[in-house]
Write a structure and sequence with these properties.
single chain; mainly alpha; 9 helices
């Protein structure tokens, strides 16, 4: 429980904590295989865990973002396609089981996505969550008036990112992967879209960070 999110939200019933746990486990397994520290068969387990995050919330596909460059690199390596297929097999196993269940239940294999899609439109968007400076302020421990927070749990966000940045720059090149992991997800949360049909800015909520 080193990350402030665990402490602030661990006793609150919401999907963010299990998404972060299973998504992180999937990414860690993926990179362990990429670094040849685990057998290739663990890619299937990584895909299963990534699929499970999708079942929790469709928006958890953001966990795939750090993996895209490494999956793309495998396209140019010998037997790379088999590694990609193994990971995708795990992911599609979960989605297929869910689709079959939903088809039997309500004749719509993608009901999970269709029900969530309404939240990803501008019509249902809350303008209060569009503040582009919300995450940078949290990272530096500042309030909405850009004053240093001294008596609020939000201050822990600033402490965490400050020392995490120092740790990344002081360590060796093996830290480049977690640095990319954090940076890629953060940039998507800051500038990415909640919809593929139209640009809907990501909701900027503390628990998402």
């Amino acid at each position: 429980s080193f990350y402030p999110l665990h402490i602030l939200y661990s006793s609150v019933f919401m999907p963010d904590i299990p998404i972060e746990f299973f998504g992180s486990a999937a990414i860690i397994l993926f990179f362990c295989v990429y670094k040849e520290k685990l057998k290739k068969s663990w890619l299937y387990v990584s895909g299963l865990l990534m699929g499970y995050t999708y079942l929790i919330n469709v928006r958890s596909v953001v966990c795939l973002i750090p993996l895209i460059p490494f999956l793309s690199a495998w396209l140019f390596k010998k037997k790379g396609l088999s590694l990609i297929a193994l990971f995708m097999a795990g992911l599609l196993t979960v989605i297929t089981i869910e689709g079959a269940y939903n088809y039997i239940r309500c004749k719509d294999p993608f009901v999970n996505y269709h029900e969530s899609r309404q939240e990803f439109t501008l019509e249902h968007y809350k303008p209060a969550n569009i503040d582009m400076w919300a995450y940078p302020r949290l990272m530096f421990g500042l309030d909405q008036n850009n004053n240093i927070i001294t008596n609020h749990p939000r201050l822990m966000y600033g402490y965490f990112f400050f020392f995490a940045a120092i740790a990344l720059f002081m360590c060796n090149r093996s830290m480049l992967i977690p640095a990319w992991w954090m940076l890629s997800v953060y940039l998507w949360m800051q500038f990415g879209s909640m919809s593929f049909m139209e640009y809907v800015p990501m909701h900027r909520l503390e628990r998402h960070l």
